[in-house]
Design a protein that fits this description.
The structure is a single chain. The chain has 2 helices and 12 strands. The protein is mainly beta. It folds into 2 domains: about 80 residues, RimM (Elongation Factor Tu (Ef-tu), domain 3, Beta Barrel), CATH 2.40.30; about 70 residues, Roll (SH3 type barrels). The strands form 2 sheets. It has a 6-stranded antiparallel barrel. The chain has a 6-stranded mixed sheet with strand order 10-9-8-7-12-11, with no helix packed on it. Strand 4 and strand 5 form a beta hairpin.
Length: about 190
């Protein structure tokens, strides 16, 4: 039995994993304020190359060299070769900071990263397809998988009671008995 609970918030785009997001320009030297979406200690220190993906431009990624990173109270300040002025940096507001997926990702057994779960086909206990994992909501108690198909949306708690097996090789996630996640059983 696999436990689904998730590590860093991240998403996939052609073998890239998201580790942060540019919030806004900072200062006059073209730095940007960055929100970390990774729980890997020291993830930003030592970065040499990253990909900046603007969500509103159809997920096109621009490779850039990281010239400077420093930790601040609520995140990081970063300077990249892609921008050198506050005006150029403003163009990247909201961009995802991504790095290539590494096969040596640190993980505990039965733990999966968000980018591994997004896009998995979800099957009920009878083997019927329910939909696809579209997003993952993070709450203090647990994570919730948002599963959608053309007709409906399911919110499935990501825990051992609701998820029987995560099969990354076949891109499937198998849920357990409906009593743990189907709203009709709660009424």
């Amino acid at each position: 039995m696999s436990a689904p609970v998730l590590s860093p918030a991240s998403q996939t785009a052609d073998s890239l994993v998201t580790i942060g997001r540019i919030l806004k320009p900072f200062g006059v030297r073209g730095e940007v304020k960055v929100e970390s979406l990774s729980d890997v200690p020291g993830r930003f220190e030592g970065l040499q190359t990253v990909y900046l993906t603007l969500p509103h431009e159809g997920a096109t990624s621009q490779e850039t060299t990281v010239t400077h990173v420093r930790k601040v109270t609520a995140g990081y300040l970063m300077k990249c070769s892609a921008f050198s002025t506050p005006e150029e940096a403003a163009h990247f507001r909201g961009a995802w900071i991504q790095i290539p997926v590494s096969p040596e990702l640190p993980r505990d057994p039965d733990t999966f990263y968000h980018f591994e779960l997004i896009g998995l086909r979800v099957e009920d206990p009878d083997g019927q397809e329910m939909g696809t994992v579209e997003e993952i909501l993070e709450y203090p108690q647990h994570h919730v998988l948002v599963v959608r198909n053309q007709e409906t949306e399911f919110l499935i708690p990501a825990n051992r009671r609701t998820i029987e097996k995560v099969d990354l090789n076949n891109q499937r996630l198998h849920v357990t008995s409906k009593e743990w996640w189907d709203i009709r059983h709660a009424l």
